[in-house]
Design brief:
heterotrimer, A alpha/beta (449), B mainly alpha (287), C mainly alpha (302), A: alpha/beta, 2 domains, two-stranded antiparallel sheet, 46% helix, B: 287 residues, MetI-like fold, two-stranded antiparallel ribbon, 15 helices
């Protein structure tokens, strides 16, 4: 029996061990491109040889799926590259796959993911695990449409992703803002809340008519972050949450987030179905869309500057839906990106694809077809290009671009997001009776393990 | 016929309660398909409307994007790919499963050997151990072997839950077959191949078809193993539908996809009902 | 078998070898795949995962942490509750249907197609049907509004996404009651109705006939079908994932969440969860089978 066991563990460790394999040619190509020694024509030639690009993206939206197949695939085919759009249910699946493959010894050129649509924690994870291709973004020909000049404050969204320096390892694809919609058939204009206090007052009067997407979904995390900004005890809003957890420390973070979490706790009895015990938090935005359409809730908050316009065009929003300013001064704005993993099997094709995605042409058709706001920066475009981009917008419903700009706030540092998310799960969802500073401390310890 | 006459002392008609029960049960099984069909043609259908306020056909011309059935039937929905994958995987799994189970079932039905009960129990273990456990554990091995996200990996994984069913059904078939015919043929001078080809196989065919159909059915309905091991790269009908409804809502295109996912089942139902008698199904699960 | 002659011995050996050879393919496939997966799962749950740089084998802390947490037992209770409830309801509904099915009625050949439909289609279809029927914005809620019983979706009793799990149970029953019917109906067809008839002639009431004649006859079918569906229900993922009430989740969903956590060392915790599910499931099912075998022996059936 013992012998059998030893033999078994030996064979398992044989399966498990082994050094990182890599394709030296792929490594050379990467080093050459990032050093600027490979011209674009060589990239195009290599991409034609590679033939395919495996793009992993969240496949939960029909319009995005259609746009990928209908617009992106033919455009890349002209470059001799076949798009393989892999629709995943969560971005983390692709990150997991890359990390698992790297852990299994699949190095440069040997993996199966060429590019991922991501931001925030997922990018931070790949960066921390050294699983990124490198600083490719500023080397793309179309990166001229993106503001890289660090002296321009508007460049921050291209240089920092949830407080983590992008280092050019991902290229901006779309810039979004957290916007709420209201069903004006059910809520009078005077009752529409613009601050958290007004929201609480509304729910005291009309209980059960609001809920938010449950963390750890990023849309839920964002709502929690906005709450915490607004309840920052120092009154410094988002600016207190831009450093990493190592700089801020568990104790200080706990102090900063306690009022926000206490507000969320106090909000619970007024949330959807709370009268039957604990409230109901939808797991993802499409579930919240369904509740909004059926009048189960009166409001719908998510990343979606053009969500109302596209929702009306798709029949997924009630006809009387309108956007409104909430919460004043803390409407979180950020970008999402395309990143190339370190072990991408077709790196040149991935470069061709990301470059196409940064073109004015593709950004315009994306805005028009899917309602995803542009990721390139309008002031870097020619006047005609900027005008065509603006004309493609499905349009805001009920508020103006000026409203959005005036109330914009940055997102939270990715290392804090994990801690805040863990604290929410413990304190709100699991009704932990531990004080918040104990929970935060434990979360920080768990995450730094 | 004889039996029916003989049961004159028993009530062979339904009691009123049973009549109502049959109707209720049919409603429970089929009723939900009515709103599903309506939803698949809806554009906007909000509570408390019993019928959509706007139908898909009204919006069809205005919309830039394919809606509802236009989306479901377009290549964008990946329905064709998922159907082909499902059928292909199911067929290969069935063939492999049949090939490895036939000889074993013959031995199990006819021979006695030491440790046979233990062996039989081992063969039915996959029915008892949860699929989630197997799937997660296999994923670790498959990633390392490069089998994750490949057809081979999924086909191999599908063998685990299908083997117990196939073994049970085929063993029952061999048991019912008896040995006499083969022995007679042997006595009459047929060699092993001839016996297999001319005697055993023709008698086995109905049972084998039943086992094959059932294995195919089980394989096409597997979600979890495909979901874990396919890694989003290989989609089948169950995983495609899962990604559409994972949020817990159902729009028109999701409703259309749900309806199409039931079509292979209906076809299979018509086929099995023709080829398999109820008894054959039942025997497969007997202990 | 005393001292067979050499040629006979050789023939016997050959036969045995041939027999083993026939068993080999299925045995090796299951051992390598299924056994390998199980062994690896156990090893990992005991701290053996060199690919994450973790190797503290044998380390019982993952099980300790899991079994020491209150939420694990909550999840276990939920898992068992959904599984048992669904199995029981499926059994009752399925047996009732099978008893009706052996009688004659108009449209029976059509009905034989109809009731089997859920068996042929994936669970995900059942989930979609539950969503459209049972949600607060669903069809039943709309009918209730149409009948004037409620005036807001929130007034409709919540069926999905609660820890009572009626939505999950409804999906299981929808899929599994026909399965029970199929098995029991087959057994009933097999045994014929002579004994029932005899009992009736001898003056047994309908209840007596059912409990003393029919039930013992269909018991093997009941045991094997409930065994299979209960085992499935314990390990099911998609219905509790989509229709469940959130934290605490059922064990397979908990395992999946651990497995998907950003913290990769939690995967070992997930493995411990998975192994726990397997242990508990097989424990319950073994006991069930053993009890049944004892009963069979007692009544002199083998």
């Amino acid at each position: 029996m013992k012998k059998l066991f030893i033999g078994l563990s030996l064979s398992v460790s044989l399966v498990a061990g082994g050094a990182m394999a890599e394709d030296p040619e792929a490594t050379a190509f990467r080093d050459g491109f990032i050093a600027g020694n490979v011209d674009w024509q060589a990239v195009q030639e290599r991409a034609k040889k590679e033939g395919t690009v495996n793009l992993y993206y969240w496949g939960g939206s029909d319009p995005i799926n259609i746009w990928m197949d209908r617009t992106v695939a033919p455009a890349l085919a002209e470059e001799g590259v076949t798009l393989n759009p892999v629709r995943i249910t969560g971005t983390k699946d692709a990150v997991d796959l890359v990390l698992a493959e790297m852990a299994a010894g699949k190095g440069p050129g040997e993996g199966s993911v060429d590019a991922i649509w991501l931001n925030g924690e997922n990018f931070a994870t790949l960066k921390r695990q050294n699983a990124l291709f490198g600083a490719f973004a500023p080397k793309l020909p179309n990166s001229k449409f993106i503001e890289w000049n660090a002296e321009d404050p508007r460049s921050q969204m291209n240089l920092r992703d949830f407080g983590v320096e992008t280092g050019g390892a991902e290229v901006p694809w779309s810039g979004e803002q957290y916007v709420c919609a209201v069903n004006t058939d059910r809520v009078a204009a005077a009752d529409v809340p613009h601050t958290f206090a007004e929201l609480k007052a509304y729910l005291d009067k009309t209980p059960g008519k609001f809920t938010y997407v449950k963390p750890p979904h990023y849309i839920g995390n964002t709502f929690v972050q906005a709450t915490i900004y607004a309840h920052n005890p120092d009154g410094t809003g988002a600016s207190a949450f831009q450093e990493s957890i190592d700089v801020i420390g568990a104790e200080e973070l706990a102090r900063l987030i306690t009022p926000g979490l206490e507000y969320l706790k106090a909000l619970e009895p007024g949330l959807l179905d709370a009268n039957g015990g604990s409230p109901r938090y939808p797991e993802d935005p499409s579930a919240l869309d369904g509740m909004f359409l059926n009048g189960e809730v009166d409001f719908n908050c998510k990343f979606g500057m053009f969500a109302v316009a596209t929702g009306l065009a798709q029949g997924t929003y009630p006809e009387a839906a309108e956007q409104f300013v909430f919460p004043e001064g803390n409407m979180i704005k950020n970008k999402n990106y395309l990143a190339i993993p370190a072990n991408a099997p077709n790196p040149a094709a991935a470069l061709i694809m990301t470059n196409y995605m940064s073109s004015v042409e593709s950004q315009t058709s994306k805005l028009q077809g899917t309602g995803m706001p542009p990721g390139i920066d309008p002031w870097k475009l020619s006047e005609a290009e900027a005008a065509s981009l603006a004309a493609a917008s499905p349009g805001l419903v009920g508020l103006t671009q000026a409203d959005l700009d005036a109330n914009a706030a940055p997102d939270t540092n990715a290392t804090l997001v994990d801690v805040i998310e863990a604290t929410w799960l413990e304190y709100i969802e699991r009704d932990s009776t531990d004080p918040i500073d104990v929970i935060v401390k434990r979360a920080v310890e768990n995450l730094s393990k | 016929m004889r039996r029916r006459k003989a049961t004159s002392a028993l009530n062979t008609r339904l009691s009123p309660f049973q009549k109502i029960y049959l109707l209720l049960f049919a409603g429970f099984i089929l009723g939900p398909f009515i709103p599903l069909i309506i939803q698949s043609f809806a554009f906007r259908w909000a509570w408390p409307d019993l019928l959509p306020s706007t139908w898909w056909l009204e919006q069809r011309e205005k919309s830039m994007l394919p809606l509802a059935w236009d989306y479901v039937l377009s290549p964008y929905s990946r329905m064709l790919e998922a159907t082909i994958n499902t059928v292909f995987i199911g067929l290969v799994v069935t063939v492999i499963c049949l090939a490895i189970c036939l000889p074993a079932a013959r031995v199990l039905a006819r021979e006695n050997f030491r440790g046979k009960p233990a062996f039989e129990f081992f063969l039915s273990m996959p029915l008892i151990v949860p699929e989630a456990a197997i799937g997660i554990a296999l994923l670790m091995i498959f990633i390392r072997l490069g089998l994750a996200g490949s057809y081979i990996g999924i086909i191999i994984a599908h063998l685990i839950p299908t083997i117990p069913y196939m073994i049970r059904m085929l063993t029952a078939v061999y048991q019912g077959l008896g040995r006499d015919f083969e022995e007679q043929a042997m006595i009459l001078g047929a060699n092993r191949w001839q016996v297999l080809r001319l005697v055993t196989l023709p008698m086995l065919i109905p049972g084998v078809v039943a086992g094959a159909l059932f294995t195919f059915l089980v394989s096409t309905n597997i979600f979890l193993l495909t979901f874990f091991l396919g890694q989003g790269k290989i989609i089948t009908l169950p995983t495609l539908l899962f990604s559409k409804i994972a949020g817990g809502t159902l729009d028109a295109s999701a409703a259309g996809i749900t309806l199409l996912v039931t079509v292979p089942g209906i076809i299979l139902l018509l086929v099995t009902e023709r080829f398999i008698k109820e008894e054959a199904f039942g025997k497969g699960f007997g202990n | 078998m005393k001292n067979p002659k050499p040629p006979e011995l050789a023939r016997h050996r050959r036969e045995r070898l041939w027999m083993m050879l026939q068993l080999l393919p299925v045995f090796s496939v299951l051992t390598i795949l299924f056994g390998g997966a199980l062994v690896l799962a156990v090893l990992q749950s005991l701290g053996f995962a060199p690919w994450f740089g973790v190797n503290t084998f044998p380390d019982f802390s993952y099980f300790g942490a899991l079994w020491g947490s209150y939420s694990f037992w909550q999840s276990l209770a939920l898992t068992l509750y959904y599984a048992l409830m669904a199995t029981f309801i499926s059994l009752v509904m399925g047996v009732l249907l099978a008893l009706a099915m052996v009688r004659m009625f108009p449209g029976k050949s059509l009905y034989k197609y109809l009731y089997k439909l859920p068996l042929m289609i994936p669970y995900t279809v059942g989930i979609a049907l539950a969503v459209i029927m049972l949600g607060n914005g669903g069809m039943l809620s709309r009918l209730a509004a149409f009948a004037g019983l409620i005036s807001d979706p929130s007034e409709f009793p919540q069926i999905l996404k609660t820890h009572y799990g009626w939505g999950i149970i409804a999906v299981y029953v929808w899929k599994q009651a026909p399965f029970v019917t199929l098995t029991i109906y087959a057994v009933l067809l097999g045994v014929g109705r002579e004994t029932e008839e005899a009992a009736t002639i001898l003056g047994a009431s309908r209840w007596q006939t059912f409990f003393q004649v029919t039930l013992p006859q269909i018991l093997p079918g009941i045991v094997s079908s409930t065994l299979i569906i209960f085992a499935f229900n314990i390990g099911a993922f998609e219905a509790p994932f989509i229709l469940g009430g959130g934290y605490p989740d059922t064990l397979p969903v908990v395992a999946w969440r651990y497995f998907n956590d950003a913290d990769y060392t939690l995967q070992l915790q997930g493995m411990a969860t998975v192994v726990s599910i397997a242990l508990i499931a097989s424990g319950i099912l073994f006991t069930y089978l053993a009890l049944y075998r004892r009963y069979e022996r007692r009544i002199g059936r083998n």
